[in-house]
Design brief:
The termini are far apart. Strand 3 and strand 4 form a beta hairpin. The longest helix has 12 residues. About 4% of the residues have low confidence. A five-stranded mixed sheet has the order 2-1-5-3-4. The chain has two domains: 96 residues, Phosphatidylinositol 3-kinase Catalytic Subunit, Chain A, domain 1 (Ubiquitin-like (UB roll), Roll), CATH 3.10.20.90; 44 residues, no CATH class. It is flat. By secondary structure, the chain is of the alpha+beta class. It is 23% helix and 20% strand.
Length: 174
């Protein structure tokens, strides 16, 4: 409806909903981030259609990053999405269509679509992040080593942790 023809009822706010319909909804672009690949670029924009597969996106991204796209088995495309404060990661199958995923997400939520990224990673690359564990009701005035022992007893032996285990303590008095 034309904006001029909208009538405002007293006491009510006028609600306008705009929806952009692209000229061709079956094509667009996705941003592919290099993960921990040894490149200087932040991301590359890859043009896609509904027929573009993950394999096609990986080949185009590797070429644009200046890497050898000859051996695709060394790489994978990972879909990472932020949903309600938690991060979800999923390795994509080479036959999937990233554009179909983006279109589906946009239909449900533009925010969810904007919070979804694609990362190109090497298959042998292990993705891990720092995890902060907050533990309450610990006895006060112990040494760091004593706190570490308590946490190791609660969480298990150190050998079950991958990477570096560095407890950091912040003392807050309540």
């Amino acid at each position: 409806m034309p904006v001029q023809s909208l009538i405002r009822v007293e006491g009510k706010r006028c609600g306008l909903f705009f929806r952009y319909r692209p000229p061709n909804p079956d094509e667009g672009s996705v941003k592919v981030y290099p993960g921990k690949l040894n490149v200087t670029d932040t991301y590359r924009v890859i043009p896609v259609t509904l027929d573009t597969s993950v394999e096609d996106v990986m080949i185009a991204a590797l070429d644009q990053f200046g890497l050898d796209s000859g051996d695709l088995n060394r790489y994978r495309l990972v879909e990472v999405s932020l949903d309600k404060g938690s991060v979800h990661e999923r390795t994509m199958d080479n036959t999937e269509s990233p554009w179909a995923i983006i279109k589906s997400l946009a239909r449900d939520s533009i925010r969810q679509k904007d919070n979804t990224r694609f990362y190109l990673q090497q298959v042998d690359e292990v993705y891990c992040s720092n995890v902060a564990i907050f533990v309450g009701n610990l006895p006060p005035n112990l040494s760091q080593r004593q706190y570490e022992r308590i946490l190791v007893e609660l969480l298990g032996k150190r050998k079950c942790f991958t990477g570096k285990f560095t407890p950091r303590f912040r003392y807050n008095r309540v």
